Amino acid sequence: MNAMKNVLAFIILLASLTSAQAQVKNSSYTATTGEKVLQLEIIYPADLKTTWQLFTTDDGLKKWIAPVVHIDYVVGGSITTNYDKNKSLIDPSSIKLPIISYLENQMLTLKVNLNDNFPASCRNSDKNLQEVLQFKEAGPGQTRIISSMIGWGTGPDWDKTYKFFEKGNEWTYLQLLKVASPR
Prior knowledge:
It is a single chain. This protein is of the alpha+beta class. It is 35% helix and 28% strand. The chain has five helices and nine strands. Strands 1, 2, 3, 4, 5, 6, 7, 8 and 9 form a nine-stranded antiparallel β-sheet that branches. The chain is globular, with a radius of gyration of 18 Å. The two termini are 28 Å apart.
């Protein structure tokens, strides 16, 4: 009987994980120019304005991206985060993403600067690495978010960096989905 309960618990766990994974669609592709595009999509269960605020306000970002966060929401501003709640935004471990451009409730483009956790060969050639976030109505009370990372270099170090962001961005968007349906 205990074995049966364990199997059932495992099946339920597996089903919930599979369901969560299915909520982040990987639609990555290679452009006609040969450049990689790391593209992830989700349908977020909130209207466009509410969803936009999760990306463009301190309170919104704190709900899902990091416990320590600040956004200077202007072109030329930035989003600064730290995943350690005991550290400050000026700590060297903080991540700063400059805001290249935005169209309110439609699109947000961030410059991705690689830190010391990535190979020097990538850090020294990441000048074009960006994340373009698109926001589109997807029905009543739903928003499609499309995250496209562009500007990848080539070679084994860049392949590893791409894989890191592929997994990391999927995890990040799963955290966003948890805001809508906390357990």
